[in-house]
Request: fold
Amino acid sequence: MSVPVSQMYTVASYILQQKIRGQKRYPFVLMLEPLFRCNLACAGCGKIQYPAQILKKHLTVEQCLAAVAECGAPIVSIPGGEPLMYPDIDKLVAELVKRRKYIYLCTNAILLKEKLHLFTPSKYLTFSVHMDGLREEHDEAVCRDGVFDEAVEGIKAALQRGFRVTTNTTLFDGASPLRMREFFDEMMDLGVEGMMLSPGYSYSKAPDQEHFLHQTRTNQLFSEMLSKPKRRWKFNQSPLFLRFLMGKKDFECTPWGNPTFNMFGWQRPCYLLQEGYAASFRELMDGTKWENYGKKSGNEKCRDCMVHCGYEATAVDHTFSSLKGFAETVSVALSGKL
Amino acid sequence: MTLEGWVPQINDYTSLREVVDFAFDYRGNTTVVKRDGGEIVGYIFNREADAPDAFIQLFDEQGDGPFTIPYRDIATIKFTGKDTAAGNSWKAWVERKEKERALRAAASGVDRLGRDPGPDGG
Ligand code: SF4
Ligand code: SF4
Reply:
């Protein structure tokens, strides 16, 4: 695990507070999408397909901050679209830092180098750079040559200026475990703080429908890739979630763990499925038929989903819900064996 | 499969509720035809079919809104806008890459990665 102690402490005390208060459902990471516009059009992306007038729109900083306050999660992840194309991204980040929120700004890093001057290094701000593998695999995944090199340039510049940088990688069918192991080495050589991994979700709107991973293939791929992990590899996520991806644990989805807010409102039920929008966070929490989602529900759309925004929250909750879960997390963290 | 160009007739076989569901799922602008004959073009981003007074919500072509229209005011919805989820630019990109790879493989005698183009996700 590569998460700083202060962040771990903030998250742990937040979860314990929720438990003491007897909260059954609580958010862990707010997925804040200030805009849907992007400078790429990746094949597996289910986020950017909107008519022009929607792509031109974005939330105001005030709307974003109101959503952050309403939700109360200690971590705010800013995906999109490409958040560096959001005209007020500097103001938004500065305001979130003031509010002591841990921010993961999820970027494809094409604009990172030229926009770095807008930000100040802080323990609260991490650039989470979208990297789907080594040069050839990444450029294929994002459907444009040269993006891997641009992202590496951006990462180097950010690290040089003292920013926290992690990578986030989505894996699809056809990924080579050996090439991925090489990729982990390369990212560690670059000096990133940690890596995040997730299998892709089979968005019905994504142009490429052939390469989404199904559960047994996910288990196989992650087992091949992560068994005998090198000690130098650092993952910026719960080790229990990685064990789940390897098929060593069975978890149920926690769809309210990572609620999503964007220009349409609070997305029901999760970051991946778009079944409607609630006007307020309370309405999302109280008015969503949560029993219709997750594997146990039998919902087709959830059948093969093992994505971090549904299951990482379960893994983290498991760590703090039982001594067994806590001991397992500590033992994986100390031994480095997944 | 795309619904682009579809002009559904609401009748015994196709209910308004179904058409609204398709329109909600459609990633493109639609034209909402109202019972009073008025029309509004825009992107339908929300629908509450089970609300006491069922409604849709949309942003119009200028991006203004959200506008809320009750089901009871809707005659039909025409799928007039381009389906932005059709993914043609990606297909062109894959074809170009496949050609490049075939040329490279022919030059070197092997396909180094031996994998199909993989997608990426949100
Ligand atoms: S960079 Fe992210 S938001 Fe942009 S197209 Fe790719 S996956 Fe979608
Ligand atoms: S299983 Fe996946 S798609 Fe279904 S609710 Fe959970 S996160 Fe969303």
Remarks:
- The longest strand of chain A covers residues 164-171.
- Chain A touches chain B through 48 residues (CB under 8 Å).
